[in-house]
């Protein structure tokens, strides 16, 4: 019997049928200088994609563009089959800083995510249920009435995740959401993120410069490299979870990514 390799690499992106997000030929930059150029990628429904790259490779610029926060200088983004011209109500964002409103308690901060522009109207009962479920899922039921100043960094980031989930997003964008946390909290949050994405049946695009984080979390890793940045390589990661138990495969993938990062850096 032949066993499928849990890691497959490709230089060219493969087709993603019925994607949540589909981007073609994207160019983004500042003051006429392209930061990323010729970027095409798709994110499948319920797929976790990690966008990995060195500092300054354009990860945040690309994520902001894919989320509709900036218009591309070239190319186009389609979200759920429609052209994306502004942030979509079925997408949610989490950043490195949780950005909670200090005068609102946890419950109200999570509910605040339902008041964003163009969010579909929901009745009071559905709203209360969504807030309750999201807070419970991130393990903060006993802190629902605490204020941000009373929370640890990890707890505050859990609230930011709950705020995103309460919107029942089709796609969760996360830009280095755990990089300000200590190693133990960070590991907990990585597992929590995978668990929540699976329970909420959402897709996720996680930006990170941390190779190990990408390997532990992603169904697929995209490497952004070059000047201007482009998708230099992708890896499909079918290592069973919890992945910490599959050390050999993790080490092999890590070595492959490091080699590709070095090669990409040498080319620029
Ligand atoms: N508002 C801006 N105006 C001008 N240049 C910018 C702006 N934001 C980012 N840049 C530049 O664009 C390039 C890519 O930045 P970006 O933040 O997208 O990279 P990154 O891969 O997310 O980096 P990091 O991992 O360090 O956060 C950098 O050279 C940066 O200096």
How would you briefly describe this protein structure?
The chain has helices spanning 59-66, 106-112, 124-137, 153-165, 183-199, 211-217, 247-267; strands at 7-10, 19-30, 33-44, 48-52, 74-79, 82-83, 91-94, 171-175, 203-208, 220-225, 230-237. It has 268 residues and is an alpha/beta fold.
Outline, from the CA principal axes? globular
Q: Which fold name fills CATH's third level, the topology of the largest domain?
A: Rossmann fold
Task: Report strand %.
Answer: 25-35%
The total strand number stands at 11
Query: In the CATH hierarchy, what is the architecture of the largest domain at level 2?
Result: 3-Layer(aba) Sandwich
The biggest beta sheet, please?
A: 7 strands, mixed
Mean pLDDT rating: 92
Give the ordered list of helices and strands.
Answer: EEEEHEEEHHHEHEHEEH
CATH class (first level) name of the largest domain: Alpha Beta
Q: State the end-to-end distance.
A: 43 Å
Small ligands present? adenosine-5'-triphosphate
Name of the CATH homologous superfamily of the largest domain: P-loop containing nucleotide triphosphate hydrolases
Class derived from helix and strand content: alpha/beta
Main sheet: which strands, in order across? 1-11-10-4-9-8-7
User: Could you state the oligomeric state of the chains shown?
Assistant: single chain
Total count of helical runs of at least 4 residues: 7
The stretches of 5 or more residues where confidence is low (pLDDT under 50) are none
Give the tally of structural domains: 2
| Cα-based radius of gyration, to the nearest Å | 19 Å
Protein name: ABC transporter ATP-binding protein
Domain ABC transporter: 21-251
InterPro entries: AAA+_ATPase (IPR003593), ABC_transporter-like_ATP-bd (IPR003439), ABC_transporter-like_CS (IPR017871), ABC_transporter_ATP-bind (IPR050166), P-loop_NTPase (IPR027417)
Family: Belongs to the ABC transporter superfamily.
